[in-house]
Amino acid sequence: MVVCQGMDHSAVLTIAAQLDTDQQSVADLMHRAQGAVTTLGQNWFGNDSRQFASDWATRSTQLMGAADVIAVMSRQARSQASDQANTSKS
Asked: Top-level CATH class of 9-84?
């Protein structure tokens, strides 16, 4: 049985950078959608419009939560890569 442990430090840092890009993409998408919802609210009136805006408020929080999770994952990957680099130097 082959046991393999360790990390390709540069690959993990590359993935962390991609996660940063993905997090920003999610945040940008949320902001664009917020602009669309705001425009809808200026052009659509009544109970359905209010419900739509309320639904968006709930869902946008979830979307930002996803962006936050991606940011945490990126930080964790960087931290683990840093720990690995320090351990390898010892």
From this structure: mainly alpha
